[in-house]
Amino acid sequence: MTLLGAHRTARTPLDQAPVGAKLAGLALLGVAVVATRGAPASLALLGLAVAAAVVAALPPRATLRGLLPVLVTALLAGAYQAWARGSGPAVEVVADLLTLVLGAAVVTATTPADRLLDALAAAARPLRRLGVPPDLVALAVALVLRSVPEIARTVHEVRDAARARGVERDPRVWLTPAVLRVVGRARDLGEALAARGIVD
Amino acid sequence: MIELDGAVVTAYSPGEARRGAAERVVTLLGPVTATLTERRIAVVGANGSGKSTLARLLNGLTLPAAGAVRVDGLDTARDGAAVRRRVGFLFTDPDAQVVMPTGVEDVALSLRRLGVPARERDARAREALARVGLASRADLPVRALSGGQRQLLALAAVLATEPAVLVCDEPTTLLDLRWRRVVDTLLADLPQQVVQVTHDLDAAARADRVLVVDGGRVVHDGRPGPALDAYRSLMAVEPA
């Protein structure tokens, strides 16, 4: 299974770039996705994310396979938008979702988790005054970023299981166990962090 | 030293919830009273007998509803963080334990808790991985490792924090014979006190002390020979 966004050892310019700059870029991309309107702008931002993935030398085939579950979700959302509001908003929704996931994947693939945590903890330091531990905020954000490939993998496995039973056409058959497994995985993750004393 | 002082673990039973609040609580384990000082302790019992619950009590992952559990005098309910610094926990399934995408990053996550400076973390994480034979796998995605290698990674992440006690909940159940031997050898050579929940009677026979858990109670506690005989007798009865 493809590990979309899993860090790999490489020496592209994006691997060498400061973590803070990459996170700021990702935040700006997110703001741009929300703030801009219209299919051309959304497609331009998607082009930007694709260009970043090319610069980061993400393996094309593996990345596409990793994006497949997101693409399926985006297409479902896009189909609804096409029916409700027309083709323009549909293209916008699909492009926006792919842009955000691909952008996050580029950041996580080009940044070791330890450096990501350090940068996020430094950024969250002002929250200490409000009684919020910066390390915990950093860990939460890093885990959310890392959960993208994990969720994609879970959906892929559950769909494989449904396919093996010949029932993959009914989304209820794979969607329900996929959601249950993701929730279960989140619970296990919390327990593992507690056992390791990481959230103390 | 680990002390269990009348420790009881309870849970809410959804099946009984409809009958009223007074009947909702069921006892999963206990009361258990024991002082664990031996270097190698095995806990055996049938599936669902309460042995994992007993293991989870020891690092405060589960807290007793009554009684107390203390590690070197620290109460797991009151001093949870200090207890977890002393007691490492190894799960059956490494996928439940390893949270970072590569081995070196996961061990480094453990080291953050100790306040190890960022510039030293990578080197120390690699040392910890080398100690379990994973030096050449440090940068590989965790998904690219075999089940046995992932369990070794989980072990390295726990041992990197240098706990005084290691609690293992069936650490070899998912492994083939070769990896089981590797993990068993590593655990046997550790300087730490090791409490191991296991279905592997050969591993239990090598312990200094064996606790047999059945129906939420410790029904036998002693040397491996008599304890494992008691366990075999229990297992000779058909499950209800």
Question: How would you sum up the global shape of chain B?
Answer: globular
What share of residues are in beta strands of chain A?
Answer: under 5%
Computed CA radius of gyration of chain B, to the nearest angstrom: 19 Å
Oligomer kind:
heterodimer
Spans of chain A of at least 5 consecutive residues whose pLDDT stays below 50 are none
Number of domains of chain B: 1
Structure summary, number of beta strands of chain B = 10
Helix-and-strand structural type of chain B:
alpha/beta
How far apart, in Å, are the first and last alpha carbons of chain B?
A: 36 Å
- What number of structural domains do the residues of chain A give? 2
Largest interface: A-B, 28 and 31 residues
Tally of helical segments of chain A:
8
* Helix share bin of chain A: over 70%
What is the name of the CATH class of chain B? Alpha Beta
Quote the average pLDDT of chain A. Answer: 83
Helicity level of chain B: 25-40%
Question: Remind me, CATH topology of chain B?
Answer: Rossmann fold
Overall outline of chain A: globular
Main β sheet profile of chain B: 6 strands, mixed
How many extended strands of chain A?
Answer: 0
**Could you state the order of secondary-structure elements of chain B as H and E?**
EEEHEEHEHHHHEHEHEEH
Description:
The complex is a heterodimer of chains A (200) and B (240). Chain A is mostly helical. Chain A has two domains: 1-111, no CATH class; 133-200, no CATH class. Chain A has eight helices and no strands. In chain A, helix 3 (39-55) packs parallel to helix 5, helix 4 (60-85) crosses helix 7 and helix 5 (87-109) packs across helix 7 (134-164). Chain B is α/β, with parallel strands linked by helices. Chain B has one domain: Rossmann fold (3-Layer(aba) Sandwich). Chain B starts with a strand and ends in a 5-residue tail after the last helix. The A-B interface holds A 1, 3, 6-9, 108, 112-114, 117-118, 135, 143, 146, 149, 153, 188-189, 191-198, 200 and B 59, 61, 80-81, 84-85, 88-89, 91, 96-102, 105, 108-110, 112-113, 118, 121-122, 139, 141, 143, 157-158, 161.
